[in-house]
Amino acid sequence: QLQLVESGGGLVQPGGSLRLSCVASEFSLDIYAIGWFRQAPGKEREAVSCISSSGGETAYKNSVKGRFTISRDNAKNTVYLQMNSLKPEDTAVYYCAARNFRACVLWPSSYDYWGQGTQVTVSS
């Protein structure tokens, strides 16, 4: 079964940046669309961004457009989420997930494999 591991979370001040990574073990990621999701305490999990298997298609939640960038390096079996101009409302546990299709969608229920998450805290 595809296993995903996120890293790169941490504590950052408002306006700062973080880069999250999502790495797959044992299986190649290049046939999966990958999504990044987040869940804040007391809130439902929400989609942040996704990227198609080829990397040619991306999508973003409106509130992160222009601040976050998703990318993938299939040779390294890794998907990244570059987060700039971070705000306190970006604080959440961030998850990556893989979908058994090549196309990118922003619906959590469409994803089949999930990582354990990495905490991102934006605070002064």
Verbal overview:
The protein is mainly beta and 124 residues long. It is 0% helix and 48% strand. It has no helices and 11 strands. Strands 2, 4, 5, 6, 9, 10 and 11 form a 7-stranded mixed beta sheet that branches. A 4-stranded antiparallel beta sheet has the order 1-3-8-7, with no helix packed on it. Strand 4 and strand 5 (46-51) form a beta hairpin. The protein starts with a strand and ends with a strand.
Global morphology: globular
Major β-sheet annotation: 7 strands, mixed
Roughly how many Å is the radius of gyration?
13 Å
- Rounded mean pLDDT score: 95
Q: N-to-C SSE series?
A: EEEEEEEEEEE
Helix content: under 10%
- Detail the poorly predicted runs: none
Ends apart, CA distance between termini: 40 Å
Essential attributes:
124 residues, seven-stranded mixed beta sheet, 11 strands, 0% helix
Give me the secondary-structure topology.
Layout: E1 3-7, E2 10-12, E3 18-25, E4 33-39, E5 46-51, E6 58-60, E7 68-73, E8 78-83, E9 92-99, E10 113-114, E11 118-122
Parallel strand pairs: 2-11
Antiparallel strand pairs: 1-3, 3-8, 4-5, 4-9, 5-6, 7-8, 9-10, 9-11
